[in-house]
Amino acid sequence: MPDLKLEGLPKDDHPSVDDYAALFINDIPLLDVRAPIEFKQGAFPNAVNIPLLDDKQREAVGTVYKNQGQDAAILLGAQLVAEEEQIKRKKLWAEFFSKTASRGKTEATKEFHNLAPMDEMQTSQKWGGVLYCFRGGLRSKISQQWVFDHSGEKQARVDGGYKAMRRFLIDTIERLSEEMSIVVLGGRTGSGKTRLLKQLDNSIDLEGLANHRGSAFGPTATPQPTQINFENNLAIELLKKEAAGHQLIVIEDEGRNVGSIGLPQRLFEAMQTSPLVMLEVTEEDRNKVSIDEYILDTQRSFDEVYGKEQGEVELAKHLLNSLAKIKKRLGGIRYEEARKQMLAAIQLRSESGSIAGFIPLVSSLLVDYYDPMYDYQSRNKHDRVVFKGGYKEVYKYLSSKTA
After folding, report:
1. Are 314 and 222 in contact (CB under 8 A)?
2. Is residue 142 within 8 Å of 55, Cβ to Cβ?
3. Could you list the active site residues?
4. What percent helix, strand, coil does the chain show, rounded to 5?
5. Using CA atoms, how far apart are residues 65 and 109, in angstroms rounded to an integer?
6. What is the mean pLDDT of residues 218-223?
7. pLDDT the model gives residue 273
8. Architecture of domain 180-403
9. CB 53 within 8 A of CB 1
């Protein structure tokens, strides 16, 4: 679909920005004026969507463009965005820039939380906010002009728009996957690898970015991001590590996919040849960490989304569905026994709040299911291991590798 063009648009004299790294490293608030469907397909963590055209308008303009040509599409676009809609958009855009300029992004996003999900981030003083469309063309220029008409202030647009920023982030992943040194943190399920990663300034939590713990029991109460959004967020994390002066990053040992999210090929390949540090903890500690992360933390996430009563119901569904995913690997007899244990543990937790019922079940799953799978996957990794130790020893070793 071509960018919308309105008759009488004055000569473009509004500023543009092409320092994409600065935009992402400094968490500059971004005003995305693309249609909602475009935003859902791919966006940036520091962006809010207040579109010039809604989905139906965009589809109508695109259809006319395909069947009748550019002039007819331009005319329809001008007709669809009626004066009343223009006023509404101008006001929302001007409010966005006013809030981001005067109070910073963190507070401004609270005002716009119903328009798009955003992270709590700091705002650079260089720009209050910047807008963009798909290619940084006429939709961006029209939006700039409308903001100026409403507020008398000129706001910058991103040169090249979403497409250029997305290309920059893809290239960033490929470049830094080669330029940065990587240390991979391995260990059996329940070792507390993610907890250790979060203690390091030079780590990247792939499971956190993917919103998935990387196993059959890995889903959380909220959906995973789109593949595009995962890649965008990963690239931004890499940029920030580079900007902070880190030449080495620590990443948890992962398979090709984290839930439904695929790791970028270049990064995955680099991880397969990187030094491996093994976190080794007792079975008792692994059992405790697994219950904390897969039961208690997951329960809290379901309670936050659904409320305590319904959250308990949804958690039970989640645990039983997750167990069913490994039925084939467990075998029929072991699966049925595990399911009985799971139902009993869920009931005990509901009636008394006790997690005691999960202890033997989790221990059995770790030893009988996860450990054999881990041993199989680790078979060809021994020559890459450069250090082994408990939590404190591995933390000390990795903390020394901060360059």
Report:
1. no
2. no
3. 133
4. 60, 10, 30
5. 35
6. 93
7. 95
8. 3-Layer(aba) Sandwich (3.40)
9. no
The one-character DSSP state at 223 is P
Segment 312-355, tens digit of pLDDT:
999 999 999 999 999 998 999 999 999 999 999 999 999 999 99
C-alpha to C-alpha distance for 74 and 80, rounded to whole angstroms: 10
Q: Which helix (H) or strand (E) is 23 found in, with range?
A: helix 20-25
Three state DSSP letters for 142-187: HHHHHHHHHHCCCCEEECCHHHHHHHHHHHHHHHHHHHCEEEEEEE
- Read off the pLDDT of residues 107-149 as tens digits, 9 standing for 90 and up: 444 343 333 333 332 333 355 799 999 988 878 888 888 898 8
Q: What angle do CA 6, 7, 12 make, to 5 degrees?
A: 75
Write down the H helix ranges in 326-390: 327-330, 332-352, 358-365, 371-377
Show the tokens assigned to 54. 């809604």
Tokens of 335: 């699966």
Domain ranges of the chain: 16-166, 180-403
Distance CA 315, CA 295 (A): 8
Q: What's the DSSP call for residue 136? A: S
Give the separation between CA 104 and CA 37, rounded to whole angstroms.
Answer: 27
Q: Which CATH class is domain 16-166?
A: alpha beta
Residue found under tokens 């059996």: 188
- Write down the pTM of the prediction: 0.88
Q: How far apart are CA 302 and CA 124, in angstroms?
A: 34
Cβ contacts of residue 20 below 8 Å, gap of 6+?
A: 158, 164, 165, 168, 169
Q: How far is CA 209 from the centre of its chain?
A: 4
- Burial-class residue 374 by CB neighbours within 10 Å (0-12, 13-18, 19+): middle
User: Which residue stretches of 26-82 are H helix?
Assistant: 36-41, 55-68, 70-80
Residue 172 has pLDDT above 60, yes or no: yes
